[in-house]
Write a structure and sequence with these properties.
Layout: H1 2-33, E1 41-47, H2 55-70, E2 74-80, H3 94-97, H4 113-122, E3 125-131, H5 139-147, H6 149-153, E4 161-168, H7 173-186, E5 190-198, H8 208-222, H9 232-248, H10 252-261, H11 279-307
Parallel strand pairs: 1-2, 1-3, 3-4, 4-5
């Protein structure tokens, strides 16, 4: 009986998800058709490969071809992360516990990390790519992910749709895409698609998956935030960060930042700004946040209890 009930609930959930995604697809398609040329969009494409003319760069060129075919007002620019000479993180944690300004790597004249961050802030949407090296992202992307540690706690890319794209010879593409998507969610961006191109079957400008991903990203740039409908992963990541960094607030700079952005007030209970959140997501993540808050407060109380100095026994 339990198995049948579980199967029924699973089928109903899948049907509901298909219905909602179909509605969203139609809405994005209508937005894309009405996208006016007078509304230019800046798309930043980050090549995370050390090589500038191989499969990763070829995939980015295919994206540019399709994006410009859909809208002549789109401005696309490829940047090669290798050119920014990013220095590896030293793990001092000063950028997290204090401020990004205390990072010792900022004093280097060669390091262009801040320039890359400013370009990400200025764009309307972005694509971040990486080849698969030994089942993981490239070393260039790994250094970038280490350097954005303060923005895990204090997001800066809210409302920016993006695409996670991976180039692989044969295997590990989907797994590496998930690895790369995790910190991008923490930074506040909204991945609309994961793309994987393989050496044996590379993606081109006419590949259905690439076309659909580019069209969705472009449509999201024109869709008002109030019309967005964040998927489950995005809502989970936001609620987790809001509770841990903002409400519980083990790190004072994190809590101050979240309060300053207005994310701790009721309109932003489930995402960075008021948008469409289904009843099911409200129930699930409302309960998740309440349970997480209680568990964090219990852990804090236990830590304070065991760390408090014990009274010395009084002598006779």
């Amino acid at each position: 009986m339990f198995f049948k009930l579980s199967l029924l609930l699973f089928v109903l959930f899948k049907l509901y998800s298909w219905f909602k995604s179909n509605q969203l697809r139609k809405r994005l398609h209508s937005v894309l058709e009405s996208l006016a040329d007078r509304n230019p969009k800046q798309i930043l494409l980050i090549n995370g490969s050390p090589r500038k003319n191989r499969s990763t760069a070829t995939m980015l060129e295919a994206m540019i071809t399709h994006l410009k075919a859909k809208s002549s007002s789109v401005s696309c620019r490829i940047v090669h992360i290798e050119d920014y000479h990013l220095l590896p993180c030293r793990g001092c944690a000063g950028c997290v516990t204090k401020s990004e300004d205390v990072c010792p790597l900022r004093r280097s004249s060669e390091d262009r990390f801040e320039e890359l961050i400013e370009e990400l802030k200025a764009c309307d949407a972005f694509v971040i790519t990486s080849p698969v090296y030994v089942g993981m992202v490239s070393s260039q992307i790994k250094v970038f992910l280490d350097r954005i540690a303060p923005y895990y706690h204090r997001p800066i890319l809210m409302g920016k749709p993006c695409i996670i794209a991976i180039a692989t010879a044969a295997a590990y593409g989907p797994r590496v895409a998930k690895q790369l998507a995790e910190p991008i969610y923490f930074m506040g961006a909204y991945p609309v698609a994961h793309l994987v191109t393989k050496a044996i079957k590379p993606l081109t400008a006419t590949s259905p998956a690439l076309m659909r991903a580019c069209e969705h990203m472009l449509a999201y740039t024109a869709l008002p935030h109030s019309e967005w409908e964040p998927h489950w992963r995005a809502c989970y990541q936001y609620c987790f960060s809001r509770t841990l960094f903002g409400e519980v607030g083990f790190n004072p700079p994190d809590r101050a930042y979240w309060a300053q952005q207005g994310w701790l007030t009721p309109p932003c209970q489930y995402y960075f700004y008021p948008c469409r959140v289904s009843f099911a997501k409200r129930c699930v993540f409302g309960g998740f946040r309440a349970a997480f808050q209680v568990s964090m407060k219990i852990m804090r109380a236990m830590r304070m209890k065991y760390n408090s100095p014990k009274e010395a026994p009084q002598g006779e």
